[in-house]
Amino acid sequence: MYDIEGIDLASPKSVFRSCRENKLLSDEETIDALTMANDRNLTVRTYNEAVAEKTHSKLKLYYSILSQLVERMRNRLSKGQ
Asked: Taking the model in full, what pTM does it have?
């Protein structure tokens, strides 16, 4: 967000919220991205197989969100917006 909007953020959740405010993520994508950040926090602090399996089942969704976000950022940077 710093390179695109000049916004310096300290956490993944604040980045996702800022991406929504700057129209890089939709409301639904932002909810999924915030869930992804929560899932990431759960998996690094908890050694629970059920949590790991639940998070694993969402990896394709999370990959899709991040891929789209990266593409949108690249497009915005290339347009100089």
From this structure: 0.85
Which residues neighbour 32 within 8 Å (Cβ) at sequence distance 6 or greater?
61, 62, 65
- Collapsing DSSP states into helix, strand and coil, what is residue 5? helix
Q: For residues 26 and 55, is the Cβ–Cβ distance under 8 A?
A: no
Q: Please, are residues 39 and 58 in contact by the beta-carbon 8 Å criterion?
A: yes
CB atoms within 10 A of CB 7: 14
pLDDT per position as a tens digit, 3-36: 777 788 889 999 999 999 999 999 999 999 999 9
Determine the residue type at 13: K
